[in-house]
Design a protein that fits this description.
elongated, 2 domains, single chain, 114 residues
Length: 114
């Protein structure tokens, strides 16, 4: 067995239990029990990691850390894009595309100070 590790929810680097693909096929109940107790196992084929099986808790934890910030940014981006597409903002777009890097820098500083 190779020594695969992962970082758990507490941030600790821990060993990941491993099973061969054959063991997984023939003894899935044992594999599941190990997933339930450890949160994750690696499935190997010919001693090479080929898959990772996560518990639902580990999966939700993984998604939970990534989903919320992306949803917030997506909503903010959609709102900004909709505002920029208004006819009143078209002259600003034209100016932005023609602006020098220095002008863009001053505009960014001015916008950030508001």
């Amino acid at each position: 067995m190779s020594a695969l590790t992962y970082r758990n929810r507490q941030g600790q680097v821990v060993d990941m239990p491993e099973f061969s693909a054959t063991d997984a096929k023939n003894g899935f109940g044992r594999v599941l029990e190990t997933v339930f107790s450890h949160g994750v196992v690696a499935i190997t084929k010919r001693d090479e990691p080929k898959a990772v099986l996560l518990s639902l808790e580990a999966y939700e934890d993984l998604l939970g850390r990534q989903r919320e910030p992306l949803q917030a940014l997506s909503a903010e981006f959609d709102q900004l894009l909709a505002g920029m597409q208004q006819p009143a903002h078209r002259p600003g777009w034209a100016g932005a595309f023609d602006a020098s890097p220095e002008e863009l820098g001053r505009a960014a500083v001015a916008a950030a100070s508001r």
